[in-house]
Amino acid sequence: MGKREKGVDIFDFRIDFHHIGSEFLSSRHFNAETSVAAKEMFLFACRKDGIEVEVINIEVWNRWANRWENPSDFVECEAELVS
Prior knowledge:
Elements: E1 11-19, E2 26-32, H1 35-48, E3 53-62, E4 67-69, H2 71-82
Antiparallel strand pairs: 1-2, 1-3, 3-4
């Protein structure tokens, strides 16, 4: 197992989606540095398995507030804490 760089934060993202042609909502979790990276990993896994999906929502787990939040809200909140 490789070593993680110091100072790199990894977050838990929840991706809500449904299969094309279905209204049944599903969720998958990915650990990544950004919501963009999490979505790319998710779409790669879907393409690999030949599954067509539509992403409905992406949220990030805010461990300090103990809730799921919009990724852009989370980043702005983190930036405010630093300044």
